[in-house]
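User: If you would, consider this record:
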Amino acid sequence: MDEYVNQTDLVILKTLERLGKTTISELYYEVVIIKRISYQAVRSHIRKLEKYGHVRREGRGRDAVIEITEKGRRLLDKTLQLLVMTH
């Protein structure tokens, strides 16, 4: 992998894959149910994923729109394949 990703990053990517283009608020709602982390923590993970080109965000704040990029999909697929192979 090009950079370190953790379980929360993968949850965010998988959620975006399922939801498609969505608002940060909707993503936060979905992730907090699964991970029980704060809005600030989700924002931190999103910033990291955006920095590495795995997600694309338009706008600012909770109404910003976010989506997974092709690079993010490849990372998610690769990581899930590795998990399957190790079990």
Observations:
- Residues 7-86 form a domain with the Arc Repressor Mutant, subunit A fold (CATH 1.10.10.10).
- Residues 70-86 form the longest helix (17 residues).
